[in-house]
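Lab notebook page, bench 4
Experiment: in silico fold of construct C2
Operator: M.H.
Input chain length: 113 residues
Purpose: comparison with the prior construct
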Amino acid sequence: EVQLVESGGGLVQAGGSLRLSCAASGFTFDDYAIGWFRQAPGKEREGVSCISLSDGSTYYADSVKGRFTISSDNAKNTVYLQLNSLKPEDTAVYYCWAPGGFWGQGTQVTVSS
């Protein structure tokens, strides 16, 4: 059974940083990609970043490019999303995603102005 468990969200002031973690289990980690999405109140879920676990290639949405960094520790089956220079508009529930339509439960990130 595929499981994705996010952690690391919280309340931070604008300009601050957080590191989100996504611990994955139930599949061969190295064969896949893992993505981060977010959903703000009243808005659609949007893609934030993605990493290929086989070759390390990454993707970032324009809105977070230069501020967020995705990385993985394949030995720990964990993907991280480092959030720097946070803005109030980054406030959202952040979800981890794996191919096949698997989602984590989400972790809340709140950025105060």
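Observations: DSSP finds no helices and eleven strands in the chain. Residues 34 and 98 are 5 Å apart (CA to CA).
Next step: discuss at group meeting.
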